[in-house]
Structures are given as structure tokens and as C-alpha cells.
């Protein structure tokens, strides 16, 4: 397919450098084979995450100058609150410094030991914050998400039948919350349909369980709904967003993704004033006063502007189009990935590329290491390495997928960079049988993949 041209021109540039292959082999060894330990300056194309890596617009940079740094009641805060109310239709809005801060503020108010949280799929920090309260986190994504080659329009959806079964199994009073992650990051940036939101909300209402939207990539999700859900083909992305959020009771958001900023987060509640009072208490303890929530006024200003910019259809066609372009080259070369292409990246099926590496030797991590050695591309594992050990048994868990995620920063890389990504993957595929697995030599107890040390098997 054709590459959709950038709907912007470049006004400022940042130099990047390419090390030699020998230097890269040395650097990744020094980093204990953990891509999070690499220095940014030793990376040529950084696909570690789409979080906080976005290029801001001239409008956002102008907003940075206008940011109001008042400790309490700043102008930028009110602008953000009005913007959030306008786009999402929720009454109570709390800025926080990033997504996991919203999780830390909210989850202890809904969960405790003995309780259960169910999600279409928890992202690793949301899972960690559920488990930190002592509660159990259960994923409940549709079965079709588990087959990377099966192309379905909404592979991020919740399996609603299974959800209801789980609620009955544990008892409804045990279920502290249901989380809908849009798009479903860990399943490959796959979207959730409006119909699925409706069905999940009916179940949550029936059993009186709060429905939380984890909204980091809400705009990409709205784009997919417009493309793929007949009922919404003539709706604006803002109308679709309103519709989706009308089914939730509250949302948490890492604003470092779709909202096109480098730092920021949000927590919003549709109508529960009592819960919002508790949220404000936790925010003051953990984040800062309620009108800045751990952010500078300038960050809040950039966020308010980014929330409007990200719902532009031309931008999203280009953004998602870049990833579909890369996917089409991989299709031509027989490289499997979670298909169709996701909203914020391509999740390459490392299990298919390295059938000889078992899950406990981390095929997704092996491919991440090879991409760095091959072309200075930094990625990460979304598989058993990221999933970690079972908190009850301490045993390595087997993930449903073994992906290597090529997460694409917004408005940052051009077509030539995408061609390099494709060439690197093709080169690795051609020598796949010689690639070896890895074992962990040291790991911390929580969120180990960020810090662990590895060595080749
Ligand atoms: N929820 C989802 C769905 C996420 O993807 C992330 C972060 C978070 C919550 C936490 O937000 O980083 O602002 O604290 N995902 C990043 C990623 C880190 O690379 O996918 P945060």
C-alpha cells in the first residue's frame, strides 16, 4: 500500500547517529541485553514506546509559553477541564503526572485484598497497580485476539460471555472494577468496538460494577471505529469518542500517547461526586494540589491543545497509515505480526519468527536484541518476559503472545525510517534459525522487564 504523506512540515530537527554493528553488539551486552538499559544516544530509531516521545506542534510549543504556573487555580487548569468536559462529557476532571499516577490514585479506592479486577487486557502498570492493592487482575480478551494471523476488525474487544461467567464465579461483590483498555495495547494496539463497550456496560450495570476506561489511545480507537463499524462511518471522531465514553463511569489516561504531549495524565469521573472527593484527597497526597496534579502549568496547556489536535482525521489517517504501510511490506515478505496492524505500532510475532525459542527463553526479547544489533532500532518485548512471574507461585507465566513491539512515536519518523525497519526485519528473518534465546540473571520483584539483566542461553 501507499505511504500517506505527512500532513505537516518539519520546523525543528534533532540529530540522530548510527553506531557500527560492532559498537552495537558491545552496547547491548553492556546493557545486560535489556533495551531499557541502552542510552538513548546509542539508538538510531527509537521504537521502545510511543509514550512521551511525540513531537509537539507549533501550537503546543506556543502554549508552553502561555502556561500558567500558579500553584492553585491556574488558567491552564481551567482550559484543560473545559476541554476534557467538551470532548468526553465527564463532570469531574483531575490532571495527574502520567497514566500510572491515575492508577495509583484511583485503584486503592475500588480494590483491596480479596477483590478482583477484570479487563479486556491490563497494561503492565495497570496490572501492577491492581496487584499492589492486594487484588487479583484477570484478562478477558476475545479469543480471536490470540491468533496473530487472524484478521478481525476489533481484536481488542472484551469476551463478554466470559466476563459474565467470571463475575458469577467470583461473586459480583468481589469484582472491584472492570477496565476497558482502548485501544488494547497488550493485544497489539487493537481497537474495541462501540458495540462491545455497550455490551460490557450492560453487564457492569446489571451487577453494579464500576466500568473504568483506560483511555491512553482513545483517538486511534475512534479512528478504527469510524473505519470499521458501519454505524459510525459518517460520524466525526469527536462524536464517536463521546459515544464510547458515555458507557464508562470513569476514565484513567496516560496523556503521553494520543494526547500528543511528552508528559501528563488524566483521571475523570462522569458523575460520582463522592468518589471524586476521595480522588482529590489521594491526588494531594501523591501528586500535588488538585489544580496542577504533578504537572507544570505549561504541560497542562500543551495537553489541552494536544487533546484537540489528536482528533484530526487527516492526522490519524496518516498516523495509522504509516503502520499499515509497514505491515504491508511485512505481508509481502511473510513476516507475521498481530494483524491487522495496530493503532500505535506493529507487534511482530516473534514466536512465529523463532519457533525454536521456548517462551521461557523469551523470543520477543530475542527479536528486540536482534533489531538493535541489525539496525540500531530499539523495541521491547510484549510477551512472557514482560508478563513476569506469578505473584502466588513465583513461577514464570506463559503469555498468550510473544510479540516484539515496534511502537511508533507520533509525528516523528518518516517513510525512509519505515523502510529501514522493514529491511531490518527481513534481514533477521533470513538468519532466524541462528538466533538464540535468553535467560534472566537478575530481576526485581515488580515490573521486572524494565530493569532485569539477561544473558544469551
Ligand atoms: N495504560 C496503558 C494502556 C498504557 O499503554 C500505559 C503506558 C499506561 C496505562 C501507563 O501510563 O506510562 O503514562 O504511566 N504505556 C506505555 C507503553 C509505557 O510503552 O505502552 P504511563
From TrEMBL:
Lineage top rank: taxon: Bacteria
The protein, known as: Tryptophanase
Species name: Miniphocaeibacter halophilus
Amino acid at each position: 500500500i501507499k505511504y500517506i504523506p505527512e500532513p505537516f512540515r518539519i520546523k525543528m530537527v534533532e540529530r540522530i547517529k548510527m553506531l557500527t554493528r560492532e559498537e552495537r553488539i558491545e552496547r547491548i551486552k553492556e546493557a545486560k541485553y535489556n533495551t531499557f538499559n541502552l542510552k538513548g544516544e546509542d539508538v538510531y530509531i527509537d521504537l521502545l514506546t510511543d509514550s512521551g516521545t511525540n513531537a509537539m506542534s507549533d501550537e503546543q510549543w506556543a502554549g508552553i509559553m502561555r502556561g500558567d504556573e500558579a500553584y492553585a487555580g491556574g488558567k491552564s487548569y481551567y482550559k484543560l477541564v473545559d476541554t476534557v468536559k467538551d470532548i468526553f462529557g465527564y463532570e469531574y476532571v483531575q490532571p495527574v503526572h502520567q497514566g500510572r499516577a491515575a492508577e495509583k490514585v484511583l485503584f486503592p479506592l475500588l480494590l483491596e485484598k480479596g477483590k478482583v479486577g477484570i479487563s479486556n487486557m491490563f497494561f503492565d502498570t495497570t496490572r501492577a497497580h491492581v496487584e499492589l492493592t492486594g487484588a487479583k487482575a484477570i484478562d478477558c480478551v476475545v479469543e480471536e485476539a490470540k491468533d496473530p494471523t487472524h484478521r478481525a476488525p476489533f481484536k481488542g474487544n472484551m469476551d463478554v460471555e466470559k466476563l459474565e461467567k467470571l463475575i458469577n464465579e467470583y461473586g459480583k461483590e468481589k469484582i472491584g472494577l472492570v477496565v476497558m483498555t482502548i485501544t488494547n495495547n497488550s493485544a497489539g494496539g487493537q481497537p474495541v468496538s462501540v458495540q462491545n463497550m455497550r455490551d460490557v456496560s450492560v453487564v457492569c450495570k446489571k451487577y453494579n460494577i464500576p466500568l473504568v476506561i483506560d483511555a491512553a489511545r482513545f483517538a486511534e480507537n475512534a479512528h478504527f471505529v469510524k473505519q470499521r463499524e458501519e454505524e459510525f462511518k459518517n460520524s466525526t471522531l469527536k462524536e464517536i469518542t463521546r459515544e464510547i465514553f458515555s458507557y464508562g463511569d470513569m476514565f484513567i489516561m496516560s496523556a503521553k500517547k494520543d494526547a500528543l504531549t511528552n508528559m501528563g495524565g488524566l483521571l475523570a469521573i462522569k458523575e460520582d461526586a463522592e468518589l471524586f472527593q476521595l480522588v482529590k484527597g489521594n491526588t494531594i497526597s501523591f501528586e500535588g494540589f488538585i489544580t496542577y496534579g504533578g504537572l507544570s502549568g505549561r504541560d497542562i496547556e500543551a495537553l489541552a491543545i494536544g487533546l484537540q489536535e489528536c482528533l484530526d482525521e487527516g492526522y490519524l489517517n496518516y498516523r495509522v497509515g504509516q503502520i499499515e504501510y509497514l505491515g504491508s511490506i511485512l505481508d509481502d515478505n511473510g513476516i507475521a505480526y498481530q494483524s491487522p496492524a495496530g493503532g500505535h505500532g506493529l507487534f511482530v510475532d516473534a514466536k512465529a519468527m523463532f519457533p525454536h525459542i521456548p517462551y521461557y527463553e523469551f523470543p520477543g526479547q530475542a527479536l528486540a536484541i536482534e533489531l538493535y544489533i541489525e539496525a540500531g532500532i530499539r523495541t521491547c518485548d510484549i510477551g512472557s518476559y514482560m508478563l513476569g512471574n506469578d505473584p502466588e507461585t513465583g513461577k514464570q507465566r506463559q503469555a498468550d503472545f510473544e510479540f516484539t513491539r515496534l511502537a511508533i512515536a507520533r509525528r516523528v519518523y518518516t517513510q525512509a525510517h519505515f523502510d529501514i525497519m522493514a529491511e531490518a526485519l527481513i534481514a533477521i528473518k533470513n538468519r532466524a534459525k541462528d538466533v538464540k534465546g535468553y535467560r534472566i540473571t537478575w530481576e526485581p520483584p515488580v515490573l521486572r522487564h524494565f530493569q532485569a539483566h539477561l544473558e544469551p542461553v
